[in-house]
Specification:
Number of helices: 0
Number of strands: 2
Number of domains: 1
Order of helices and strands: EE
Shape: extended
Strand order of the largest sheet: 1-2
């Protein structure tokens, strides 16, 4: 390839020396949170929508929590293995993450 014997440049594949094998995409599914049942307890001003069952996921939990202004989660929780990602779409909030209270705007 005119590379002086140094091999392919970083980020490029040497097609002559590599045989690419395309694997079939595993089963996948899609759902809309608005189509899922609100699973929040009575008298809680938060919508809880859980997609794990609808997506037929055994390892990934996907949830959407929609808080009314001034609402608070009624209890704390912890996972032994599962990681969580929090995405604040609008407004602001506060979380207790292992005793720290990071500002979501940072």
């Amino acid at each position: 390839m005119g590379d002086g014997g140094l091999g392919p440049r970083p980020g490029r594949i040497a097609h002559e020396a590599t045989r690419l094998t395309l694997l079939a995409m595993p089963n996948w599914s899609r759902t809309n949170f608005d189509d899922l049942r609100d699973a929040s307890p009575p008298d809680v001003s938060i919508q809880w929508r859980f997609a794990r069952r609808a997506l037929e996921s055994t390892e990934l939990g996907v949830s959407r929590f929609t808080y009314e202004p001034g609402a608070r989660m009624p209890w704390a929780h912890r996972h032994r293995e599962q990681e969580e990602v929090y995405v604040v779409v609008a407004g602001s909030g506060r979380a207790n993450l292992d005793g720290e209270h990071p500002d979501p705007r940072d």
